[in-house]
Each structure stands twice: as C-alpha cells, then as structure tokens.
C-alpha cells in the first residue's frame, strides 16, 4: 500500500440492501459508474457481498458493498442472509433498494428494523421509477425515486447518501492533537522477521502523515537505535511512539520525563474503544488455568516465525500469568458472534477495520460480559507501564 492510498478502515462503508431482483446491483453500477456488480433478471444473482474501494463525488473515498437478497430462501439462502446481517456491522450508511412497483414488504421492514437497531443511517431508494406513469410525492427525506435503467435520480441519490456521512469523521486525529507545531515525535519501528519487507505498516504511515500535517517533526528509528538517537537529539521529544512488541525495551530506554505510548494504543483511541480496552486489560490479572483467550486481527497476512498474534503474544501471556491458557485466533472479517466461551478478547489495533466494525466487536464482548482489550494495551500492562503509556491522554489518565 502506498502513502497515497486510502486504507479500507478509513473509507466510509456504504451498503446496498434489499430483496432479490429489486435492482440492487443495477443501482450500485449506476451510482459508481462502473460495472461493479453482475446484473441479471434471474433471482439471487448476487450470492456473496461484493466489496469495492473507490472514490465517488461528493463522498470521497468509500467502500461500496453490494449484498445478496435479504429474502433469499433455503439453506444457502439462510447463509447469504447471515452474511448480509454481518455486513451491517461494518456499514456506515445504507441504501435500501426497493422495487417501486411493489409495496413495502416484510423483507424491507425487517431491514429497516435492523438499520434502526444498529443505528445505521439509511435511505430508501425506490428503483424502477421509469415503469411508473407518475412519480408519487415524497413524504420523507429518507426516500427518493430513481431508475438505474435510465439514470433518473442517481446524482440526487449520491448527494443524499453523502448527507448521511458523519461530518466529524475527518476531524479525528491519530497523534496530531497531542503534539504542537515544531515538536519532535520519535517513532520506534522494529525491523525483524515479522516486519513487512520494504514498507511500513499502516499505523506508522498514518502517524507520519498526521505529524507532517501538524507541522511537527517525525524521527523514525529502530528499537536498537533508539537510545543513541535520543542522546543525539538537540531537543527533548514531545512523545515516543513505539510498536507494541518493543514496549519492554523501549520503556527502559526512554527517560521518565518523556511521554511514551504505542501505535496500537493510539489506534484504540482513534477507533473509539480505548477506555473499554484499558479496563479490559485488568482481566489479565484474573485469568485461571484453562481459560480461553481469543486473539483477533482485523487483517489477513502471511504468518511469520515471529508473528505477534500467534507466537509472541501467547508466549507473553503464559509467562505473565503463569497459567495454562487456551489460545484461539481469528483474522480478517472472521469474528465469532458468540464470545461466551472466552475469558478475554485481545484485538489488534484495527487499522484495517472501520470504526463501526471495531465498535461492534467491542460491543459484542461487552454485551456478553467478556473483557475486551487490544495488543498495545495488553503488552503495556504485561510490562507494568500501562499508566505511563496513557499519560499522553490527560483526560483519560485522570478518569482511570
């Protein structure tokens, strides 16, 4: 991924929902201006959610999701419906595509109920209005009449959808609000067997960009070069931000009067689950022999011999707790809805997941009484430096 690419976790996710043959895929193609989805008169052409990252004016970088018909039938249909419900967990706004020649049915009513339950803002797009002699008067600002066939109302649909997107999304900062212009931020990036060859991982890229936008200075060093770099700097850095797996060594090399945190902890705040994750880390001191731990990553990648999720973190957990723990792992879009068998969920920073999905995963754990934390917070707790790593957030530090 280049520094110019917008990662999927930073894109607004727009889901298109509806019954079979309402014209969802045709509407998706009309809105995007591309032949993104397969179109057919045959019922149930879309069998799995289709994802496409793109730029659409006036919305900017988005992730378009075309879903299977919600009224699908049979055993396979039930699986498709389940996938559609899962899509809602990562959907920032929804377009409910309805056939305007048919009345609002039970399928559409169920979807509207789900939108409202999950607090997903939505629009009802009455498709196929080219088949009507007269277009009815709109009674709600949540509705619009369109025709994917002749492009009627498609621009207006784009505008309405853009209006659903939260205006505060672009105001979130990863690190820019905890530094000032002219400050120095030291970024610690270990280069070992688990580091991606030839590139930085996404949170490191985002931090560098945010520091530049703050007119501050970023200094990037390996953990093995950190101590020498701090001695050579002519100005005390405002903060040191480290990869979580180097927390132990870095905390020993960074003087106490310099603030220290990790990319993973910054991501937890950025995605909106930092306070829950900090409280969840206390579960590490309450684990017993035989407890099951879920370690979950939001991306999929080739596992290396020094992989943090499957090798390093399980080892540190065993050493810290002195308990015999059962470790399970998931990656990508896999995340169990039933978490009751687990004593603790430890999630990655979630840089490849949008904020809505991260909050959904956190809420799943909360609702089932399962402690939820993330890599950086767990590792800071294990190293006895969690409070120190939170000093960069004075408001949160005072509450805790």
If you had to describe this structure to a student in words, what would you say it looks like?
The structure is a single chain. By secondary structure, the protein is of the alpha/beta class. Helix content is 33%, strand content 18%. The chain has 14 helices and 14 strands. A six-stranded mixed β-sheet has the order 2-3-1-4-5-6, with helices on both faces. A four-stranded parallel β-sheet has the order 8-7-9-10, with helices on both faces. Strands 12-11-13-14 form a four-stranded parallel β-sheet, with helices on both faces. The chain starts with 11 loop residues before the first strand and ends with a helix.
Q: Topology, pairings included?
A:
Layout: E1 12-17, H1 24-32, E2 50-56, E3 60-66, H2 74-87, E4 93-99, H3 106-117, E5 122-127, E6 143-145, H4 154-164, E7 184-188, H5 202-213, E8 217-221, H6 226-232, E9 239-242, H7 247-253, E10 259-262, H8 263-271, H9 274-280, E11 292-296, H10 308-321, E12 326-330, E13 344-347, H11 355-367, E14 371-374, H12 375-382, H13 386-389, H14 394-399
Parallel strand pairs: 1-3, 1-4, 4-5, 5-6, 7-8, 7-9, 9-10, 11-12, 11-13, 13-14
Antiparallel strand pairs: 2-3
Taken from the alpha-carbon principal axes, the silhouette is globular
Strand content: 15-25%
Q: Helix count?
A: 14
Q: Which class do the helix and strand fractions yield?
A: alpha/beta
Which radius of gyration do the C-alpha atoms yield?
Answer: 24 Å
Query: How many DSSP E strands?
Result: 14
Overall average residue pLDDT:
87
Kindly, what is the distance between the CA atoms of the first and last residues, rounded to a whole number of angstroms?
37 Å
Uncertain residue ranges: 37-46
- Residue share in helix: 25-40%
For the sheet with most strands, the description reads: 6 strands, mixed
SSE string:
EHEEHEHEEHEHEHEHEHHEHEEHEHHH
